[in-house]
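REQUEST ID: PR-0412
SUBMITTED BY: lab tech R.K.
PRIORITY: routine
TASK: structure prediction, single protein chain
INPUT:
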Amino acid sequence: MGSSIVRDIGFDGMPLKERYFFYPRETFEFIRVTFGDEMKTIWNEILEVENGKLALRFA
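STATUS: complete
OUTPUT:
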């Protein structure tokens, strides 16, 4: 499993917590860990593009 941190955020006036997982050279995963109207998981794939630059693909 990757490294993770928990972050407090505000979304549409709701206080929420998100856990961020980092899988080196592969993906970031964002999971809402408090209950609210916006429960979701978001995956961001790390891509290597031209000249070794990095980019994220959002899913």
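NOTES: The longest strand covers residues 14-23.
REVIEWED BY: pending
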